[in-house]
Structures are given as C-alpha cells and as structure tokens.
Amino acid sequence: MIPGILRKVALGAVVTAALASTAHASECIAPANPGGGWDFTCRTIGKIMHDIGAVDDPIQVTNMAGAGGGVAYAHVVNERGSDEDLIIAASSATATRLAQNAYGGATYDQVRFLGAIGADPGVIVVGKDSPFQSLTELMDAVKSDPQSVSFAGGSAVGGFDHLKVLMALRRSGFEDIRAVKYIGLDGGADAITQTIGGFTQAMTGDISEVIGFLKAGDIRVLASFTDERIPGFEDIPTAKEQGVDVVAVNWRGLYVPKDISEDAYRRWSDALAQVGDSPEWAAAMEANGLAPFNRVGDDFQSYVSDVILEVEALSREIGVIQ
Questions:
Q1: All domains in the chain, ordered by first residue
Q2: Which pTM does this prediction carry?
Q3: Which residues of the chain have pLDDT under 50?
C-alpha cells in the first residue's frame, strides 16, 4: 500500500474519473493533463489497438495528473490492483522517480510493466568545432581530467539526462562519478545553447531536442544510446558500437496492475506487440520523432528492473537519495 497524501489525492481523482467511466470498459490512465507524452501514449496506442482489432472495444482515456505520475500510481496500487481492464501510460521518467523514491514509498514491484514500443533516443552532442570526434574520446577526457569536461542537460541534477552520462562513464570504467561536472538547465534547448556557445563541452539529451541544431550544422552527435542506429540518422553511431554498453532512451510504454491474471497480462502484451508491429504505429512514431524500441512482456519487466536498480545506485552515490 502507498500511504500519505498521494493516496488521498488519488482517491479524489478517482471520484472524478469514475463519473465518466462505464462498467467493464477498458481504460488507459494518462498520469498527466491532456497533451504531453503520457497522454499521447494512451490516446495513440489505445486508438491503434482498437483500429487494428487487437482489442474489441474502444479504450477510454482518463487523465489523472499529480505528483509526476505518483497520484495515478497510488490509485492503481491502492484501489485497482487486480483490474484486468486497466493499462497505465509510463515512460523513463516513471522508472527514474520510482528509483529515487519520489512516489511516497512506492516501489516498482507493486505493478507489472507491460512493454514499450517506441522511444526518444538519448544522445551525446558536441559543438561543430569540438575537438572530440567520438564518444570514446569524450569519455577518455573525463577519465583523464574530470574538471576539463562539463555536460549540460535539460533535467535537474539526478534527472535522466544527468544519469545517462553517469551510466556511460561507469560502463567505460570510470568510478568517481561524483566528480563529473553536470549543469542542469530548464530544458534541452537551453542545454544545447550552452554547448554551442562553448560554455559546456557536451550536451546530454534526446534526439528530438537536437534535430534542428543538427540540420543547421551547429552540432555533431557523437553517439546515440540505442541498440541500433536511429532510423533517419544512420550516420550517428551507437554508444555500443564504440564500446560503451548503454541503452538509455525515453521510452513510451505501459504498466498494468500487479494482481491481474497471467491470461490478462498476456492479452495486453499481445495487443501492445500488435500495435508495435503495425504500420499505423510506424506512422505515429515518424510523426512524433520516435524511434523503434520494442520490448514487451517479461523482457521489458526485466529491463525496467535493471534500469531502476542502476538508477537507484547512481542516485545514492551522487546524493540525490539517501
């Protein structure tokens, strides 16, 4: 159970949501107001599921904003832990907040992660005139003199942009991650401006944030944190190709209540996999700047578990959590 204010707020949200619900209707909770990533996930995936026949009936969307997804999480855990007609939008931010205990004591094993079928790939960017020609060169510079390289990112210290860099350095054999210089700014545009201006040596963010600057020739992307090269940006090598075994993407996916049956879990897994394989979803990804990231079912649950454990360990090491 999740105690405290999150549960009280969640109960109030449920009353509003229940007025619009119909008995036994499948539902997708977007843990935010209309617009944005979680709302996109529910509305787009839910619509395609119905359009391609993966589910029989339309999926209604309920917006349940609050506490960065914590209100919806508390609602699912406390009130609907066995609801087999419910799916909930999630992203890398969900996993990061769970790892950093931002949901009032909630833990990731209180739900079951269903899958992700698209992602905004993480990237490391330098200015067009930077001396660094590869991710390996950049990592080596940090290892040689941590004070010589500073990173700008659009998230606060301890946020996912910061953690991407720490993951890459740790996988490169660098242990003193508290020595890494990171400047958290108000969004990716501010971060990349700092790098273009020479105030920082590199920017950590997502591909969607840098496309305009890349096309203008203001930057170079040293690496993407993806399994394979990003469609449409095949000239950008992955970190893995350069010997840094990191996958760090802002995935778009779903979780379900923990206590649903295996049959229900497989039903939703199969439906999500069908969406991921559909031309309708391919078109939606292209229109919204997403890249393929297909991990569904047990494979995805294992991936999220591993990421949360790594984020928790890194967050403790840099003092974000105790």
A1: 5-119+249-317 (3.40.190.150), 121-242 (3.40.190.10)
A2: 0.83
A3: 5, 8-11, 13-23
